[in-house]
Amino acid sequence: MARSRVGKTKRYSQGHPTGASPARARSGFTWIELLVVIAIIAILIGLLVPAVQKVRDSAARAQCMNNMKQIALACHTANDTYRRLPPQAGTFAGAYYGPLFFHLLPFIEQGNVWKQAKFLDFGAAVGQSDPNPGRTINIGFVWPTWDSVNTSQTPYKWLRQTLIPVYRCPSDFTLGDCIDWCNGDASYAGNFLVFGNRNNPTSRATVDYDGKARIKATFRDGTSNTILFAEKLARCNGTGTGGNWWMRGVYHGTNKFNGTNSPGGGDSFPADRFSSIFAGGKSVNENLVWWQPNATFTLPTSSATCDRKFASGPHDGGMNVALGDGSVRFVPISISLQTWQAALHPADGLSPSGSDWD
Q: Which residue has the higher pLDDT, 261 or 145?
């Protein structure tokens, strides 16, 4: 009898519709449970993405500030070495007729790029994509022109197309939106009222692009109260095709030189609409004047809404600026015109003050 009961029990278990015990039959997720889990994951991702983006934006802004600090400190090194600051455009430290950011190359560990301005392809036409190694010669002195060749690259590239990381802000969303100089674009600009002739901010005369500035002699309002550099987007089409390129504002070369920006010459010394400049000076073409006494700076949302007459930043709420003492600060877009102009002038007897600066 006992054997019969055991056999019946076994046959009952094997005959269950699922082939397993009722407890084992209910395994895995139902469709509703799976959808709930997916919804929770989606919500968590939605919360996480803005936080990650915020961290990335913060890191990019910090890198921008670090770049500006290096550029400002480079000015101090140049001043210590030559007892003066480089000009907004002109001749400086053994280099002929170059723009500000070219002259600063040896002081941001880019001395080899600076030396490449000895090599020229005089036979190049305006808009030619690459230099011709067979025509490139060593003229024996440093003179940055449209025809300068970077012979350290293979194949040869134009010096004006050399990428300088310190001159680029990773937050600048217009980088790479270039016309023909591409890697030569930049995200910062020099204050004409410091590096040029602050007494003649609407001049395009070559002599007025060299203010012969010196630390601390020409900073009578104090280096900590004077802006050396501000951010400026690499591409700016709001008022016509323009932008910001570190080597812009040079001659085409002796074979093309005619002192104008005519189609045959292409000379833009000391500046044109692509030059790294704000707060003063007048371009050689379009009569563009960078001195705007009734405005501060802009925070455009695209290159199409950008006005190249002004300093312009890619950050929310304000702009990074580098000061004469080597420090960098974030200036709010709400800064008053009076405070902004006081910070631009190195020797007008006024110092920036107020809640938008202190």
A: 145
| Digit-coded pLDDT (tens) for 237-276 | 876 678 899 999 998 876 655 555 444 467 888 998 899 9
Q: Quickly list DSSP for 178-214.
A: -SS-GGGB-SEEEEHHHHS-TT-TT---GGGG-----
Instruction: Report pLDDT digits (tens) over 108-122.
Output: 999 999 999 999 988
Tokens of 145: 């022109």
Q: What is the mean pLDDT of residues 83-104?
A: 97
- Give the closest residue to 168 by CA, choosing from 185, 189, 190, 180: 185
Distance separating alpha carbons of residues 275 and 244, to the nearest angstrom: 5
Q: Report which of 272, 276, 281 is spatially closest to residue 251, judged by C-alpha positions.
A: 272
DSSP secondary structure, 99-149, as one string: EHHHHTGGGGT-HHHHHGGGEE-TTPPTT-SS--TTT-EE-SSB--BTTBE
Give residue-wise pLDDT tens across range 336-352.
Answer: 999 999 999 999 999 99
For residue 179, CA distances in Å to 234, 243, 308 come to 11, 9, 15
**CA torsion 167→170→174→179, rounded to 10°?**
50
Radius of gyration of the chain, Cα coordinates, nearest whole angstrom: 30
User: What tokens does 228 get?
Assistant: 């050396």
The CA-CA-CA angle for residues 291, 295, 298, to 5°, reads 100
Domain ranges of the chain: 31-344
Closest C-alpha among 215, 189, 209 to residue 84: 215
Alpha-carbon distance of 54 to 57, in angstroms, equals 5
What proportion of the chain, given as a percentage, has pLDDT over 70? 86
* Nearest Cα to Cα of residue 89 among 298, 274, 233, 226: 274
CA angle, 282 then 287 then 288, to 5°: 60
Arithmetic mean of pLDDT over the chain? 86
Cα–Cα distance for residue pair 131/331, rounded to 1 Å: 42
Asked whether 95 and 144 are in contact (CB, 8 A), the reply is yes
> How does residue 53 score in pLDDT terms, banded at 50, 70 and 90?
low
User: What is the spatial distance between Cα 131 and Cα 160, in angstroms, rounded to a whole number?
Assistant: 11
According to DSSP, the residues that pair with 157 across neighbouring strands are 150
